[in-house]
Amino acid sequence: MTKEQKIELVKELVERFRTYPNFYIANTGGMTVAEVHELRAACFKSKVKMQVVKNTLIKKALEQLDVDLSGVYPALKATSAVFFIDEENPSVPAKVLKEYRGKKKEIPALKGAVIETSIFLGDDQLEVLANMKSKGELLGEIVGLLQSPAKNVLGALQSGGSTLAGLIKTLQERGDAA
Predict the structure, then answer these.
(1) Do 8 and 92 sit in the same domain of this protein?
(2) Same domain, residue pair 118 and 153
(3) What is the pLDDT of residues 15-49, one digit of tens each?
(4) What kind and span of H or E run contains 81?
(5) Phi, psi dihedral angles at 85 (to 5 degrees)
(6) d(CA 110, CA 128)
């Protein structure tokens, strides 16, 4: 690869990191061409963009971002593939990696991930990332929690309304009788 090609690739990577602030880095060393192709197909099906890139080029691209992501530099060893995903569901690449690996494979191993500028390092973080909820799911839970007390109050008022009306009517009738 010529110097000009490397410079162009770094520019493309910088743009991708800006477009997709959530990304994963996995070790694909030891995978056959057929296995990498199979992984790419699984990523494509899940709308994850996968790109195998040299670690030095990844580091140069990360250095050009406005956010300090130097915490991910220790993960930049061995063969690396970067998985880009949109902000809506950052757990998709973890699920793809987990599903691809199944129970027998150890490769591709997660080296690191950046989700909303939070850095996750090591393959042991794969389970945490796979179980991470999307923004939509979190917003739905928050709305549900906020609606719950209001529903309880409305329910109490509606059920107690007939009791309250009956009590007022009884008191009014007693006052008329006296």
Answers:
(1) yes
(2) no
(3) 999 998 899 999 988 888 999 999 999 999 999 99
(4) strand 80-85
(5) -145, 155
(6) 12
